[in-house]
Design goal:
Blueprint (H helix, E strand, L loop, with lengths): L1 H10 L20 E2 L16 E6 L9 E3 L2 E7 L12 E8 L5 E8 L19 E3 L2 E5 L4 E6 L14 H4 L17 E6 H4 L13 E3 L2 E5 L19 E5 L5 E4 L17 E5 L2 E7 L4 E5 L12 E2 L2 E6 L28 E3 L2 E7 L9 E7 L4 E2 L5 E7 L8 E3 L2 E5 L4 E6 L5 E6 L9 E3 L2 E5 L4 E6 L6 E6 L9 E3 L2 E5 L3 E5 L3
């Protein structure tokens, strides 16, 4: 029996206590980690506190995920690892946690119909979600994929067997998969199955609840930025994690009111004795749904039951929203980051669209225990941010940390929303603050990485120039901090 257990442990990667198998805390999405003994500074030039550094592509917008001794990071094919795979592609790399060497990679050709369906060089911008030996990812083509954590090294497990065709552009002979290629178990193509209209790049972090995956679809405008081609498309879908079958969707008719795209990924929590799924739509409305019950009509997806809705910007225009394109003074709001739950409240940051919308942003605290249309009675507090915001809040020890595209990191009182301190940097923030080991870690699009003390008084612990923009969030796991720039992945940890 001991020998059998040892053999099984080699065959199936196990999640360890310090792993980070999903972006944010499990279910709640809070950007807080319990990791300890993390460094407050490092030097990539001398190698101080640097475990390893690995070259990625030329554009990396994904947040690294660590599970079972492996690191998963989405990027592009700007630095090809396979000489057979050249040109623009989406790539998910699976690296060895010990030294960063490549174990396998998923390579996905670009969509050919229109560049706005799959923006050039953007790669796979979604972050993986890992459960046991299964890796779930949304590709640059708007597909939800289930992958074997071991890749092709242990054979093609199926039921999907067309990996060679899947990783090869149309009109060229299918490649033969090798041991460093991904093993796809199933594919759910959202454009064909759910009728979505992809825009720019899928940016989704999949939420797992029981047997089901909750996925923001990434549906949005077409290449004119003024038209919704698929007004009946869902914004939130539920997929069976074993089969890849679409089993449920929202019924909120959000698509016609989407100003740009569907950016925010879902979160979940227990509220008043029941589980709720939270989702910020591309219409600037925050929704709470009951989880999918498991009862479905095989002919059509079930419809998720809404518990409450909260309009984050009730005075904003709601009809013919695309009249406000490029209007920096007024227009609709949307949410890029994820709603974060803590102690009966939700924290969400949003405002005008970064590329097309008004110069207005805010972070709001909302009572998650109410029902119905809670716009008029659920707001606990609101605090203005500068220009635009893409970040997800970090809520810890009575404090809320948030960063914006006005180049500011802010610390607020959790109970009142009162500003405790702010710091202006030299670059805007696309990633989110991560709180771990009494520190706040965050990087800018200018390429500088900041470490603050996670306290009510501002204290800068260090800053380092990494020389390449940072889009994702720093992730601590097993005593190491993983920082992805556009071109490199750093594993930072004390000796």
């Amino acid at each position: 029996m001991p020998l059998l257990c040892a053999m099984l442990s080699l065959l199936s990667p196990a999640v360890r206590g310090g792993d980070q198998p999903q972006w944010g805390e499990r279910w709640t999405r809070n950007q807080v980690s319990r990791e300890r003994h993390l460094p407050d500074s490092f030097d990539p030039n001398t190698g101080r506190n640097l475990r390893w550094k690995v070259r990625l592509g030329t554009e990396t917008h994904s947040t690294p995920i660590i599970s079972g001794g492996r690191v998963y990071i989405g990027t592009n094919n700007g630095e090809p690892r396979d000489p057979r795979q050249t040109g623009d592609r989406g790539v998910l790399m699976c690296l060895d946690e010990r030294d960063g060497h490549l174990l396998w990679q998923l390579v996905v050709p670009k969509r050919e119909e229109d560049p706005y369906l799959d923006w050039p060089k953007s790669g796979i911008a979604s972050s993986a979600t890992v459960e046991g030996d299964r890796v779930y990812i949304v590709s640059n083509r708007g597909e939800v994929l289930c992958l074997d954590a071991r890749g092709m090294a242990n054979g093609n497990d199926g039921p999907f067997r067309e990996e060679g065709r899947h990783m090869t552009p149309k009109g060229t002979p299918a490649l033969e998969p090798g041991p460093t290629d991904a093993d796809i178990l199933w594919v759910c193509d959202l454009p064909s199955v759910a009728g979505i209209w992809s825009h720019d790049a899928a940016h989704s972090s999949i939420l797992i609840l029981g047997e089901y995956l909750y996925v923001n679809t990434g549906t949005g405008v077409d290449n004119t930025h003024k038209k919704i081609r698929t007004p009946d498309a869902p914004s939130l879908v539920v997929i069976h994690k074993r089969t890849g079958r679409l089993v449920a969707r929202d019924d909120e008719h959000i698509a016609p009111k989407i100003f740009h795209c569907t950016w925010s990924s879902p979160s979940s929590a227990r509220v008043g004795g029941r589980t709720l799924v939270f989702f910020a739509g591309g219409d600037g409305v925050l929704y709470a749904f009951e989880p999918y019950s498991g009862r479905a009509d095989p002919a059509a997806p079930a419809l998720l039951k809404r518990v409450w809705r909260f309009d984050t910007d009730p005075s904003a225009p709601k009809e013919e929203v695309h009249r406000y394109n490029t209007n920096r003074r007024e227009g609709p709001s949307n949410v890029y980051g994820m709603p974060v739950f803590d102690a009966g409240r939700l924290y969400v940051a949003g405002g005008g669209d970064l590329w097309w919308g008004k110069n207005e942003a805010w972070i709001k605290c909302i009572d998650a225990t109410r029902t119905g249309d809670t716009t008029a009675n659920a707001l606990v507090w609101s605090h203005p941010l500068e220009k635009h915001v893409l970040s997800t809040p970090a809520v810890h020890d009575g404090l809320v940390f948030i960063a914006d595209c006005g180049r500011n990191v802010q610390c607020l009182d959790q109970a009142t929303g009162r500003l405790l301190w702010t710091h202006e940097t030299r670059g805007e923030f696309w990633g989110s603050p991560m709180v771990a080991d009494g520190k706040v870690y965050i990087g800018t699009r200018r390429g500088d990485f900041w470490v603050f003390a996670a306290t009510r008084e501002k204290r800068i612990l260090s800053t380092v120039e990494l020389g390449s923009p940072i889009s994702g969030t720093a992730i601590p796991a097993n005593g190491v901090l993983y920082i992805a720039t556009m071109t490199d992945l750093y594993a930072v940890g004390s000796p």
